[in-house]
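User: What would this chain look like folded?
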Amino acid sequence: MKQYQMIWMLVGVLFCISPLSVNATFDHVRGRILLDVEQKGEAWYVMPTTYKRYSLGRPEEAFNVIRTLSLGISDTNLNQIPKEEDYWEGNTDFRRKMAGRLLLQVEQHGEVWYVNPVDQKRYLLGRPTDALRVMQELGLGITHANLQTIPTSLVVAPYVVRNVPFASQAPLGDWSDERQSEGCEEASAIMAVAWARGETVTKEQMRDRVIFIADQEQQKYGEFRDTSVDDTANRIVREFLGYTNIQVIHDITAQDIAQEVTTGKVVLLGVNGRILKNPNYSGQGPLQHMIVVIGYDPFTDSFITHDPGTRLGENTRYSANVLQAALLDYPTGWHEKITPGKTGMIVISRNN
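Assistant: Here's the prediction, encoded as structure tokens.
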């Protein structure tokens, strides 16, 4: 694959061609190689399954895109897609399904093919000269303003923070105890801090710690329910759990969350649980809820979470669109008035 480090070093010359500027409608650009006509032909690849763009600027970026986003394919399936010079039709349904994908020929020598969404034929990305020709002929010019309307992806591989322990907020099933049934903030903080310290958490330990912290909150602050992002950080994480390597960030987006977890951190996130529509919730789900985000998967554009609101919440996935819509930094107190649009997260980092 080292040859591909050379391929994209040639991309900079592409600004010499005059590609057509287009409006960045998602259906128009899915699976396309885009060239920013106002930025010296900077190249981007739009993943057809997520409609997000991946930079092909630096050689290492392009190498990661090819290495990670390529879909392994057998010779039998690959041969259903005609090459650029072929005139036979092949399997039209399969061609349509593979349009815009990078395909790795696993039964040969690891050749990578690009299926052009326009003619649904495959083009070999072999030698640097082959790839440059494909870029020149198939690259679609786009204005910088239109390019900015296509969301970027920060990574090209699923990234999950490992060894984050999981236990629900009522780990032994005692949801009648309000300290546990309302203990999503406590449970989320306990999981994240345990990971930061390299510890494990048993169900019994989770139950005892949730109850202990809730009792301390009630005694000192007069309330343990619906704890805001700021109060979760200051009271639960810093004061009662004694962990300080954290950062509170307000006015966030899903991209901000991905930025943190893909750099090896864990995020505590306030959400409207009803928007998450987790089928394992009881009833509609909690309006005020907190979860732990431990990973991001660009292939499905989804976040991997530990959701303490259900015993089945380990490694629960929520799409980026759903999580974005659910973001909510609710106030501390018992169902206090919510400020629409207020968002926030607590970023937990390890000391070492």
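The radius of gyration is 24 Å. If you want, I can go into more detail on any region.
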